[in-house]
Specification:
Helix content is about 45%, strand content about 15%. It has about 190 residues and is α/β, with parallel strands linked by helices. A seven-stranded parallel beta sheet has the order 4-3-2-1-5-6-7, sandwiched between helices. The longest helix has 16 residues. The chain starts with a strand and ends in a 16-residue tail after the last helix. It comes from Flavobacterium artemisiae. It catalyses: AMP + H2O = D-ribose 5-phosphate + adenine.
């Protein structure tokens, strides 16, 4: 893997460990010569993951909608800042640039980005590993919900297992590097889209 997209909050949250782990994620990516792609902001966990990578000598590509740049949250120390027109264009660009995705703690935006990548994978539009760094059990309730979806017959087990989970970044990266996408599609093939 040459590049990983990280989705995470634009705030720090209530637990200091979220910020500490975001910095560690950035540092670990840099140490493993994996470029970071993220949302381009200098605030919250987004800024922390970027700073962690930059401080360790890593390359960081930010993708930021132009309307957010005007709110003065653009990180000015990045290797590259790509400005786009919309949130949708941002997600598409972040997907195009990466070989895999990690979600750190976040809110609606983080979940929306994570689930769009999972949906695209379920539909066979990509075969990239998608992972959650489950810091301090942040995503436990979500993992339980996915298990319920599978038990109730609304999500195939093979698709549930597409989501890689760990509370340790080194273990998560190991899982991602060894990931094989399911061969079972939902209903369509990429060439039909």
């Amino acid at each position: 893997m040459k590049r990983i997209t990280v989705f995470c909050a634009s705030s720090f949250g209530t637990d200091k460990i979220y910020e500490e782990q975001a910095v560690l994620v950035g540092k670990t990516l840099a140490e493993q010569n994996i470029e970071l792609v993220y949302g381009g902001a200098n605030v919250g966990l987004m800024g922390a993951v970027a700073d962690g990578a930059l401080q360790a000598g890593g390359k960081v590509i930010g993708v930021l909608p132009d309307f957010l740049r005007s709110k003065e949250i653009a990180h000015l120390g990045l290797t590259e800042l790509i400005l786009v027109e919309s949130m949708h264009e941002r997600k598409t660009k972040m997907s195009d640039l990466c070989d895999g995705v990690i979600a750190l703690p976040g809110g609606f935006g983080t979940l929306e980005e994570l689930f769009e990548m999972l949906t695209w994978a379920q539909l066979g539009l990509h075969k990239k590993p998608i992972a959650i760094l489950n810091i301090n059990g942040f995503y436990d309730a979500l993992i339980t919900l996915l298990e319920t979806m599978t038990e109730k017959g609304l999500l195939k087990e093979v698709n549930q297992k597409m989501l890689l989970v760990s509370d340790n970044i080194d273990d998560l990266l190991y899982q991602m590097k060894n990931y094989t996408a399911p061969t079972v599609g939902k209903w369509i093939e990429k060439k039909e889209v």
